Amino acid sequence: MEFVKKAVLLSGGIDSICLTYGIKPSIAYTVDYGQIVAEREIFVSKYICKTLNIEHKVIKVNCKNLGSGDLVNQQSLNLSPSTEWWPYRNQLIITLSLMQAIKDNVSELHLASVKSDSFHTDGTDQFYQLINKLSSYQEGNIKVLCETINFYSHELAEKYKVPLNLLTLAHSCHKSNIACGTCSGCLKQQRVRYELNIE
């Protein structure tokens, strides 16, 4: 039986923590693409990987001048579906991760998007099917998988039985390395904590 080397995109948010805990990949990638919350995302992701004994790599490519909205503390573009929207962000971080993954002999790159992300075009099942088709077509034949797309965040935590001490580390803020408590990422985290009865 051929060994399938799995990698996961780990941002340090609730969804990617749940996926990482659930599938226990060989390696996790955290991408610093110029977002203002990168420092905390990397800190949390490193801790998660150390706890789970998973190799962790940080990919740094500063694309801040191409960003928009909360993640770069700028005005959103007129066509933005939300204040944290960054043009082609998921496509960007997937591509950067695939560039590292091919060097690491990875067979599958796993991402955590959930039902509530579907108001973004790049948070839909169709987007992940299309990018998987594109990635699989190219050299390396790396599959891009998003097995979390039909779940809500609290359902992921329950499905994978993620320990509370890991869930409470999650950093979902879009505006600061210290959670602001008011952005959509912070509000989502508060909602998930409520749904899971986390004090």
Distance between the termini: 45 Å
CATH class: Alpha Beta
Assign the CATH topology. Answer: Rossmann fold
Q: What order do the helices and strands follow?
A: EHEHEHEHEHHH
- Helix count? 7
Low-confidence stretches: none
Q: Spatial order of the strands in the main sheet?
A: 3-2-1-4-5
Name given to the CATH architecture: 3-Layer(aba) Sandwich
Q: Give the fraction of residues assigned to helices.
A: 25-40%
Written account of the structure:
The protein has helices at 14-23, 38-52, 89-103, 125-137, 153-160, 164-167, 184-195, and strands spanning 6-9, 27-32, 55-60, 108-110, 143-145. The chain contains seven helices and five strands. It has a five-stranded parallel β-sheet, sandwiched between helices. By secondary structure, the chain is α/β, with parallel strands linked by helices. The chain has a single domain (6-195), classed as HUPs (Rossmann fold, 3-Layer(aba) Sandwich), CATH 3.40.50.620. Strand 1, helix 1 and strand 2 (27-32) form a beta-alpha-beta unit. It is globular, with a radius of gyration of 16 Å.
